[in-house]
Prior knowledge:
The protein has helices spanning about 1-10, 25-35, 60-70, 95-100, 115-125, 175-185, 200-205, 230-240, and strands spanning about 15, 40-45, 55, 85, 105-110, 135, 145-150, 160-165, 170-175, 190-195, 215-220, 245-250, 250-255.
Amino acid sequence: xxxxxxxAAGATITRLREIGPFGDSRRAERLLLSxxxxxxxxMIVSDSQFGPQMIRKQTTDWPTYQQVFVKEDYRFDHPAPxxxxxxxxxxxYSAVYYHARYPQAHIVAVEPGSENAAVARVNVxxxxxxxxxxxxxxxxxxxxxxxxxxxxxxxxxxxRVNEADPDDKSSFAATTMPxxxxxxxxxxxxxxxxxxxAGERYLFAKNTEWLDHVNEIVIELHDRxxxxxxxxxxxxLERHWGDYDExxxxxxxxxxxxxxxxxxxxx
Length: 267
């Protein structure tokens, strides 16, 4: 791990025209420009396992990259998931990470920040097989509602949402787990990754029947910032799963259903 971390943290930062064997620089530049990014405002980091990724300068993208690809915060052992839903996808690194580890999985990545979602689309296009990852610009909620980002000036990895008046010009339509399942034909979801900045206390508060179709959850619980995040998650898992295993690694906790559902794929 240390040898890999040293390589990823040091030798992989490149200029756009040096992105290496994963694609040509002209294609990368076209992707950046088509999504409204100035190539001079970003770096491209290439990795032999995970491919090239875009990092915006002077943002939290670089520490996020280190968490996901260098420290491998999401490196839990999963039994070959076919379907993955990534809630709070930020700039797409976690989706790319899961795609590299489980290339046969269909991944749906949900991110409320419009610029974050645009970066995620670039990163998915740079490193993933076309059609393997769908980026949804929205926020997850327990019910259909209108939401708004309550801290729009926060760092890219810290955006929070709450319900808003539909007439508020900054509001947008929420998405729900049943909506995602219907849209993408997800009868069973093998893995749900959740990092929604304390929004888990709302997501798991009601309308949690979607858990009956889920095998595993990897979640960052935010009780250290906001009290009351863990309890609704545990209460919901006990209602819907009964017996489950729990493993914590760094900031993330893996909850695994003991009586696993038969996996299905939408594709």
